[in-house]
């Protein structure tokens, strides 16, 4: 089930709220666990076993680590076992076919792929449970004694499907006891509506422009290619950050504080800054559990390059079992390495618009690698962007698209920058206007929810059912 | 967030999701949406197998969204929001000038070429008869200036489909070009604005061209009596665009004096004495006034003494065209390959049909996988 659907908003959510708030305090985690299992089973009844398996294994590992607290050898063995199981599960379900196909390609073998559907959210919950065992091993948090509480942490539905990656130490306290206030609930609603609007009104609509622009590669013009990839950048940002907003909002309704995941990434001035603002929970996961253990930046140049290579290879691979994602990760690794070596100082010194421009162009070229899964298309698309494609600079259909999506593009640019929050802050400073702000905000939220509903409902338009004649 | 704001937000939000959710559940389910002109999803049957592979839940999601309360209102709001954003289309239908709507036409793929080959095979088998072919372009070919600016660049040209088909089938069929004729008479509303069909007046020019090619003397337009059947017609483009600001269309009937004739429908085994089914004007789709929609086959017998007969392989574009043929033929059989599954040659032989006319919209020729049934 996705949050941006009629079934979630008008049926699942009301029932969830009813059950959760009717449950007495000590049963709230159990209520949330059962609700989350239903949520997961809605789309994936089979893989619920895998989710529970993952929860049981890491619950047991946590207890074992606790048990072996003064026997370092056994402790280490338990950690290795836990990591092996998590990485093993992830590899088997997410990467097995990728490995098989890469091997077939390299050695000319013909092993049949497994064709397993990808279990929803597996990349997120395995990373969360791994962070738990590592933190218990390091003594940063205590092992969770209650299975219900632990399983609630693993399966909690707001962040189960698409993050943010909520590490155990962040919610450890709130799992045990949390205060649910009307202020937090109201904040959660507001956050949820903003996320819903980002997904249904912005991401879905600009996604159509991206689909249009790369549907016919032979007629790809230079301007068309740039517009297309800009559309994709907006689509993926508003899709993903909208989903994170909805997750954070739902978490807040249930009394949790989830970490922020995006902080206006498009206004960055370097690739390093971009990754401190984009999918922040993933970046910090790799930093704390891979990059720092390898020695981080406080090492020789050769070792630094190696560390960056490992982290960015894995970051790329995490996004999907395909070589283009690996390339995409390494591309950012190279940019960040260059920035660390010398470019960063230059970018900090130069006239700011130039460093912004550098990041935007670098990011857009990166999205081409990310968005197009086969290398022939990537090649054609890049050539068109650089003006080496026969279709020319611009044609009438691009002008048509710009006329149709021009207003939306302006809305997207405004929404991707902190302009609106600065405007609200300025408004709030004017004492005489301050009183009107809550009312305006209330009307805007109501309007967004209403129009989002309309887009949710017409989004189901199914051309196959249409009887044409 | 202050306490007062939070209370307001909470109360209104929870009320919103509960009220609309519950209201949708208690309103009776609709079988189809007249506004969108399509069947709506119905409550899915529960089976364990369907639950297990995820089909049950996905059908359930379609059902809940399709049966949402005031669905037509929400669909209209979305269309209005798109227009407010400056978009000149919704669901691939362009909002043209002067209340004209057009549908984006995708570039044809391999199916188009297979269709043309199927027609060639069929025509070669019937070399002893005259096989006429008339392809009706979509209205954008006749009214390109009514499209939104630059929109034509994003849509494939129907004329290319027609030219390619006639070029490929040269010598196998007798082509009946109509585009220039329709363009010459474009001031006379030869197409509906809100529907993909040509009007009966547009079909007249098609008939005129066909009659000339078949060596018949066409009835003069002046000899036809004009009658307006409906001025509240909203066609298929309208139902896709969901744009409530478009003016309705007019359906005009052009009648010629005919001796009594009989129209018999294949599926219902019923016969009537008119091409026109006026009850259709009470439904949404007024175009069904012509022959009450589409059947596998329809047989028209007239008291015309000529003794000539014709088989018209057709889609719905023929429905307001065929009445003109009654003047010249004793027997007319309309065959719709979307529904007809018998052997075509047997049917032609059994009923001793002399002429053959293939009359299709360009979109059908390019996109419908039905011509394989000709062979």
Automatic annotation (TrEMBL), chain A:
Main location group: membrane
GO CC term, one of those recorded: plasma membrane
Protein name: Transcriptional regulator
Positions of transmembrane segments: 6-23, 30-57, 77-96, 147-166, 217-238, 304-319, 325-343, 355-372, 405-425, 437-457
A Pfam family reported for this protein in Swiss-Prot or TrEMBL: MBOAT
InterPro entries: Ac/AlaTfrase_AlgI/DltB, AlgI, MB_O-acyltransferase, MBOAT_fam
Membrane topology: Multi-pass membrane protein
Taxonomic path: Bacteria, Bacillati, Bacillota, Bacilli, Bacillales
Swiss-Prot/TrEMBL GO biological process terms: alginic acid biosynthetic process
Keyword Plastid among record annotations: no
A single MF term (Gene Ontology): acyltransferase activity
Keyword terms, alphabetized: Acyltransferase, Cell membrane, Membrane, Transferase, Transmembrane, Transmembrane helix
Family, similarity comment: Belongs to the membrane-bound acyltransferase family.
Localization in the cell: Cell membrane
TrEMBL record, chain B:
Record-annotated membrane-spanning stretches: 6-26
Key word Transmembrane present: yes
Domain of life: Bacteria
Key words, A-Z: Membrane, Transmembrane, Transmembrane helix
Protein name: Preprotein translocase
Organism taxonomic ancestry: Bacteria, Bacillati, Bacillota, Bacilli, Bacillales
């Amino acid at each position: 089930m996705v949050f941006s659907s009629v079934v979630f908003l008008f049926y699942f959510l009301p029932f969830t709220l009813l059950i959760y708030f009717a449950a007495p305090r000590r049963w709230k985690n159990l209520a949330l666990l059962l609700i989350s299992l239903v949520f997961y089973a809605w789309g994936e009844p089979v893989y619920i076993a895998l989710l529970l398996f993952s929860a049981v294994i890491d619950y047991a590992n946590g207890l074992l680590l606790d048990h072996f607290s003064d026997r370092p050898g056994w402790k280490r063995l338990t950690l290795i076992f836990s990591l092996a199981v998590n990485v093993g599960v992830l590899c088997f379900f997410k990467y097995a076919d990728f490995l098989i196909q890469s091997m077939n390609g390299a050695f000319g073998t013909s092993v049949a792929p497994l064709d397993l559907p990808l279990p929803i959210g597996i990349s997120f919950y395995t990373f969360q449970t791994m962070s738990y065992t590592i933190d218990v091993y390091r003594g940063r948090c205590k092992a969770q004694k209650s299975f219900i509480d632990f399983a609630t942490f693993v399966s909690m539905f707001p962040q189960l499907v698409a993050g943010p990656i909520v590490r155990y130490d962040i919610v450890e306290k709130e799992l045990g006891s949390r205060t649910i206030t009307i202020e937090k609930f109201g904040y959660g609603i507001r956050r949820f509506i903003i996320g819903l609007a980002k997904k249904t009104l912005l991401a879905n609509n600009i996604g159509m422009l991206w689909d249009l622009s790369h549907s016919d590669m032979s007629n790809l013009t230079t301007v068309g290619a740039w517009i297309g990839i800009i559309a994709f950048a907006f689509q993926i940002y508003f899709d993903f950050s909208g989903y994170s907003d909805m997750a954070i909002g739902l978490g807040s309704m249930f009394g949790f504080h989830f970490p922020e995941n995006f902080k206006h990434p498009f206004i960055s001035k370097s690739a390093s800054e971009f990754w401190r603002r984009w999918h922040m929970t993933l970046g910090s996961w790799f930093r704390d559990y891979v990059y720092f253990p390898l020695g981080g930046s406080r090492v020789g140049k050769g070792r630094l390059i190696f560390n960056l290579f490992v982290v960015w290879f894995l970051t790329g691979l995490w996004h999907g079992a395909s070589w283009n994602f690996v390339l995409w990760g390494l591309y950012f690794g190279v940019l960040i390495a260059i920035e660390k070596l010398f470019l960063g100082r230059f970018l900090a010194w130069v006239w700011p618009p130039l460093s912004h421009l550098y990041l935007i162009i670098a990011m857009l070229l990166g999205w081409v690698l990310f968005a197009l899964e086969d290398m022939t298309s990537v090649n054609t698309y890049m050539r068109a962007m650089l003006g080496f494609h026969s279709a020319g600079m611009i044609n009438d259909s691009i002008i048509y698209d710009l006329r149709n999506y021009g207003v939306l593009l302006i809305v997207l640019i405004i929404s991707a920058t902190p302009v609106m929050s600065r405007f609200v802050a300025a408004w709030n400073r004017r004492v005489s206007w301050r009183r009107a702000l809550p009312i305006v905000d209330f009307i805007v939220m109501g309007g967004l929810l209403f129009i989002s509903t309309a887009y949710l409902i017409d989004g189901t338009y199914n051309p196959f059912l249409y009887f044409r004649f | 967030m202050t306490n007062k704001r939070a209370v307001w937000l909470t109360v209104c939000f929870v009320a919103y999701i509960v009220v609309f959710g519950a209201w949708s559940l208690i309103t009776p389910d609709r079988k189809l949406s007249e506004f969108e002109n399509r069947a709506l999803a119905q409550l899915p049957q529960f089976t364990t197998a369907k639950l297990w592979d995820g089909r049950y839940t996905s059908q359930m999601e379609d059902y809940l969204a399709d049966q949402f309360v005031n669905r037509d209102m929400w669909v209209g709001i979305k269309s209005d929001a798109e227009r407010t954003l400056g978009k000149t289309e919704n669901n691939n239908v362009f909002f043209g000038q002067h209340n004209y709507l057009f549908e984006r036409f995708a570039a044809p793929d391999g199916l188009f070429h297979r269709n043309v080959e199927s027609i060639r095979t069929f025509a070669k088998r019937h070399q002893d008869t005259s096989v006429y072919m008339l392809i009706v372009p979509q209205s954008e070919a006749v009214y390109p200036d009514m499209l939104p600016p630059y929109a034509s660049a994003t849509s494939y040209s129907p004329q290319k489909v027609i030219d390619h088909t006639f070029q490929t089938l040269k010598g196998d069929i007798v082509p009946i070009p109509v585009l220039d004729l329709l363009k010459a008479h474009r001031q006379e509303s030869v197409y509906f604005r809100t529907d993909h069909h040509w009007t009966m007046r547009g079909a007249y020019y098609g008939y005129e061209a066909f009659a000339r090619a078949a060596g018949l003397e066409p009835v003069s337009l002046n000899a036809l009596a004009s009658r307006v059947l409906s001025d509240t017609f909203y066609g298929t483009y309208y139902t896709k665009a969901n744009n409530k600001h478009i003016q309705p269309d007019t359906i005009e009937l052009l009648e010629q004096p005919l001796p009594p004739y009989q129209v018999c429908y294949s599926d219902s085994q019923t016969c009537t004495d008119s091409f026109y089914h006026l009850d259709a004007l009470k439904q949404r789709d007024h175009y069904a006034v012509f022959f009450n929609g589409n059947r596998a086959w329809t047989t028209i017998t007239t008291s015309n003494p000529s003794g000539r007969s014709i088989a018209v392989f057709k889609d719905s574009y023929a429905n307001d065209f065929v009445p003109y043929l009654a003047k010249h033929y004793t027997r007319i059989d309309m065959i719709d390959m979307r529904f007809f599954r018998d052997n075509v040659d047997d049917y032609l032989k059994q009923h001793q049909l002399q002429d053959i006319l293939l009359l299709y919209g360009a979109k059908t020729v390019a996109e419908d996988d039905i011509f394989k049934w000709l062979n």
